[in-house]
Specification:
The protein is an alpha/beta fold. 25% of the residues lie in helices and 26% in strands. Strands 1, 2, 3, 4, 5, 6 and 7 form a 7-stranded mixed beta sheet that branches. It is globular, with a radius of gyration of 16 Å.
């Protein structure tokens, strides 16, 4: 974990919630079209483990979390949608329970209940996997992105709405 103190007294903490390896073509932007996505699946070159990051901002109006990182549930059989080719052929994640954002925030001397807002950039599991730690926080996201990520169509797009907390 690292942090930076801004001149305004706002402190920003980078919180690593595990690591992920993806295909080199994906890192280089090679999977943007459907045709190229097939090339990504076939690529045998994996990246080194990359950090999965979330951010905690100590702000005068309250604590803010930007993305929630990943959950350790990724190691549970069946967590990832087995029929989805991305999870079968293009993703490897390593997250321990102590890597999740809740324990990390506690190590910084706060509680997830202290977090006023959680801002989600989008709903892929490495950005929204830690949502369950924040049942008392206001979730801030794009309605369009939320709707895009939901249901069976959202699952086909690579989202895991079946794992979102019931209260969301």
């Amino acid at each position: 974990m690292s942090s930076i103190l801004l001149a305004s007294g706002i402190r920003i903490h980078a919180i690593q919630t595990g690591t992920v390896a993806i295909k080199e073509l994906q890192r280089n932007g090679g999977g943007r079209s459907r045709r190229n996505l097939l090339r990504v699946f076939a690529d045998r070159r994996w990246t080194e483990p990359l950090p999965i990051l979330a951010w905690l901002i100590e702000h005068p109006e309250g604590l803010i979390v930007i993305d929630t990182g990943e959950t350790s549930r990724v190691s549970e059989p069946g967590y990832f949608t087995r029929w989805h080719p991305y999870y079968r052929f293009a993703l490897r994640e390593w997250v321990m329970p102590e890597d999740e954002i809740g324990p990390q925030i506690r190590r910084l001397g706060f509680s997830p209940d202290d977090v006023r807002w959680v801002v989600l950039s989008h709903f892929h599991t490495d950005h929204a996997g830690g949502l369950a730690h924040f049942p008392n926080s206001e979730i801030v996201c794009s309605r369009v992105d939320f709707e895009y990520s939901r249901g069976v169509v959202g699952r086909a797009r690579g989202f895991l709405p079946q794992h979102w907390p019931d209260w969301l």
